[in-house]
Design brief:
Radius of gyration: 32 Å
Helix content: 40-55%
CATH architecture of the largest domain: 3-Layer(aba) Sandwich
Number of strands: 12
CATH superfamily of the largest domain: DD-peptidase/beta-lactamase superfamily
CATH class of the largest domain: Alpha Beta
Catalytic activity: L-glutamine + H2O = L-glutamate + NH4(+)
Subcellular location: Mitochondrion
Strand order of the largest sheet: 5-4-11-10-9
Protein name: glutaminase
Main location: mitochondrion
Distance between the termini: 41 Å
CATH topology of the largest domain: Beta-lactamase
Number of helices: 29
Enzyme class: hydrolase
Structural class: alpha+beta
Strand content: 5-15%
């Protein structure tokens, strides 16, 4: 590129009234260089954004606002329009909504209500259903921050479509599973088809994906236990709640008549603990008031999506609840309830909460609220305190999957709670909530397909609590921006080769980076190292990383050609020696061997 040479004549040209917009533009976005100042001129243009003494930030913002109003700096709405329009003068409304759905947002998202309502009204006023820049700006301006984040891929899962494709594959794999028995201790559960299978997820940014029978209502059953525990802690605090309930896994069946050494239930996820936890909610109120209170909480957790109640299930649970009545009387004998508690009334309330209905979609928002620290992702409302969420996730992790809790914590490593209706409420903290539902259960009372899906999910993605986010290259990290990360990876690799930084290359190799990555000219790190004459880098790439010694760039040049051209004879010698040992047909086997023994080789 030719160097830019400015002069006083150019400065005078910029002073011309006809060039004012150009000069203003040069003063705005391109602050990396400054025009020359004629002698005696003070207080002119300053480069690199260093503030003028006495010049306030408010003044700069005002200046930027003026430029934006003058049309020199585009607004966020304009930038979004040009991004979606792709050179066209108008955007069809369906194109905008399709692009929006690709980011993971739904047109029914409560945060986008104003935008969608305005879009419906505006489209009716157009003959072709398309929006020009002015109409588009009118529609999106109320939600521009959220929409800009979505289209700039600034959500927790940037490449949401690719992630959803992987989820669909895991769903299909689990769908083909057979085995397990549908719970039949009450007729309402026994009526569910064993073929029902659904997965729904909601990220902490409100990105949604569903697959399968996600609109079929089912009862939460034991999946309600962590939610009512969270409500109790939210209302009363940790110290008060755990005067009555322990925090340890019991090591026994969930419905055992057994207490810990302090005569307290072991944890809130077993029936005894859940019954005591129920007694802590809205003490002194009637069951009707308590139920309304909890239902209001559930609606907030679900972002006002479907939450219902199955009276038939409630009646059946109460009629067949002898074991729970036995637990209740045992708890009463051991004085486990707060003073003045009516045990039979509490058991009725307990059965009511087990009979709350959700769909996979609404339950995934509940899980996402837990993943998001108590804020509902699709409404932005704080529902639970951080303390309540932290405690709930901790107990879900250690006690949430009946007698399978230890195995699940070991293999999946995420907080979860299963229910006898076939649901598994899974939380990936700070990322997303997932609800899996399939009625067939294994011998421990967990959904067969749900367990398989959760296990496969953590095998594919590095969501396990103890997965190393930097060095576990065999797993996908959907939180990373794929394209940007690949570009950074190539830049870092080639720059390390250019500077001769063997220690950086060693780190890249140990983190399983592809050491044969190419730039846009198809040049590899070996090309760059050979051209620069870094013999140690060349030797490391060839001997430790087993890279191909004869890759060709877009002009057909190999690393040997580069070394010869620039007169690096020591590099030429290394490359020649390695050429005699290298055979392309064995390169794959050698690379596999190198990966296994890389630590020793380094």
């Amino acid at each position: 590129m030719l160097p830019f040479r400015s002069s006083a004549a150019v400065w005078e040209l910029l002073q011309s009234p006809l060039r004012l917009p150009l000069r203003a533009a040069l003063r705005g976005p391109f602050s990396g260089w400054a025009a020359p100042q004629p002698a005696g001129r003070e207080g002119g243009f300053r480069g690199f954004c260093s503030p003028v003494q006495g010049h306030s930030d408010a003044g700069s913002e005002t200046s930027a606002d003026k430029r934006r109003k003058a049309g020199i700096l585009p607004s966020l709405e304009d930038l979004l329009f040009y991004t979606i329009a792709e050179g066209q003068e108008k955007i069809p409304a369906h194109k905008f909504t399709t692009a929006l759905k690709a980011t993971g947002l739904r047109t029914g998202d409560p945060r986008l209500r104003e935008c969608m309502e305005m879009l419906k009204v505006t489209v009716k006023t157009t003959s072709d259903g398309a929006l020009d820049r002015h109409l588009f700006k009118k529609c999106v301006q109320s939600n521009i921050v959220l929409l800009t984040q979505a289209f700039r891929k600034k959500f927790v899962i940037p490449d949401f479509q690719s992630f959803c494709a992987h989820i669909d594959e895991l769903y299909d794999k689990a769908k083909n599973m057979s085995g397990g028995q549908v719970a039949d201790y009450i007729p309402q559960l026994a009526r569910f088809s064993p073929d029902l299978w659904s997965v729904a997820l909601c990220t902490v940014d409100g990105q949604r994906h569903t697959v399968g029978d996600t609109k079929v209502p089912f009862c939460l059953q034991s999946c309600v236990k962590p939610l009512k525990y969270a409500i109790a802690v939210h209302d009363h605090g940790t110290e008060y709640v755990h005067r009555f309930i322990g925090k340890e896994p019991s090591g026994l069946r969930f419905n055992k008549l057994f207490l810990n050494e302090e005569d307290k239930p072991h944890n809130p996820m077993v029936n005894a603990g859940a019954i005591v936890c129920t007694s802590l909610i809205k003490q002194g109120a009637s069951n009707a008031e308590k139920f309304d209170y909890v239902m209001n909480f559930m609606n907030k957790l679900a972002g006002n999506e479907y939450v219902g109640f199955s009276n038939a299930t409630f009646q059946s649970e109460r009629e067949s609840g002898d074991r729970n009545f036995a637990i209740g009387y045992y708890l009463k004998e051991k004085k486990c309830f707060p003073e003045g508690t009516d045990m039979t009334s509490i058991l009725d309330f307990y059965f009511q909460l087990c009979s709350i209905e959700v769909t996979c979609e609404s339950a995934s928002v509940m899980a996402a609220t837990l993943a998001n620290g108590g804020f509902c992702p699709i409404t932005g409302e704080r529902v639970l305190s951080p303390e309540a969420v932290r405690n709930t996730l901790s107990l879900m992790h250690s006690c949430g999957m009946y007698d399978f809790s230890g195995q699940f914590a070991f293999h999946v490593g995420l907080p979860a709670k299963s229910g006898v209706a076939g649901g598994i409420l899974l939380v990936v903290p700070n990322v997303m909530g997932i609800m899996c539902w399939s009625p067939p259960l294994d011998k421990l009372g967990n959904s067969v397909r749900g367990i398989q899906f959760c296990t496969d999910l953590v095998s594919l993605f590095n969501f396990h609590n103890y997965d190393n986010l930097r060095h576990f290259a065999k797993k996908h990290d959907p939180r990373r921006e794929g394209g940007d990360q690949r570009v950074k990876s190539v830049i870092n690799l080639l720059f390390a080769a250019y500077t001769g930084d063997v220690s950086a290359l060693r780190r890249f190799a140990l983190s399983s980076m592809d050491m044969e990555q190419r730039d846009y000219d198809s040049r590899t790190a070996l090309h760059v190292a050979a051209a620069e004459g870094h013999a140690e880098v060349v030797r490391f790439l060839l001997e430790a990383c087993k890279v191909n010694p004869v890759p060709k760039d877009r002009w057909g040049n190999t690393p040997m050609d580069e070394a010869v051209h620039f007169g690096h004879h020591d590099v030429v010698t290394i490359l020649k020696d390695y050429h005699t040992k290298y055979s392309p047909q064995d390169s794959a086997a050698e690379k596999q061997s190198a990966e296994k023994n890389l630590d020793g080789m380094l």
